[in-house]
Amino acid sequence: MKVFVAGATGAIGRRLVPILVRATHQVIAATRTPAKAAAIGAKAPWRVPTFVGRLVIGEAGLVLMEDSRGASKEKAKRELGWKLAWPSWREGFKRGLSDSKNSRGI
Length: 106
Fold this sequence. Notes:
mainly alpha, two-stranded parallel sheet, single chain, 5 helices
């Protein structure tokens, strides 16, 4: 079966994709950043022109896709005393993905 997974590098997607692949499904995995695609061995994401995105997912979807990227966590760090576990999200993503593979046998 051909399966499309939006958010393939997210909390659920990065665990779901290997399960689907092992079950011999053809998986089309979607992610927004080249670094995350590279971490799971996928091709880099396509860049879609804004006007095409607006036609396909509408203005609200476009705002979610474009404006939610790069959000700051400074307030959480300041008010909750939050400390980063890794120096960058890229490093954390690679290590976290690696840790989940090792601990779950994926």
